[in-house]
Amino acid sequence: MNKPQRSQHAEDLERCERRCLALKREFQHLECFCKGTALRRAVKRGKAYCACHDDPAKRHGPYFEWTYKAKGKTVEAKLTPETMPVYRAASKEHQKLKLLPDRMERLSQTVLRHQAKLAQSTPPSRS
Known about the structure:
With 127 residues, the protein is α+β, with helices and mostly antiparallel strands. 51% of the residues lie in helices and 20% in strands. It has one domain.
């Protein structure tokens, strides 16, 4: 009964190690990244008689901005329509970067559990 259990642990371990290598490749393939959010906004102005107050379709804009935190404060930077996709892609890369360490840690814990089970199911070698 020990053999099939050991074989299953070995297969699970190999599968986890392949996933670990895939995650390492994801780290290597990250592009330039930046914290923050790239936004496209249409805004209401302060004049009560302006059409933007009554009709959302008549709001002013679109305005493109990148917002991020620096030293605990929100910073806004104006973008052009041409630079918007660059910052949006960089922001998505940052989101990937933030998720990868957690995924790697969970996978590492799984690998360690499989290694421990494999070590327990392997009889000690006689010297």
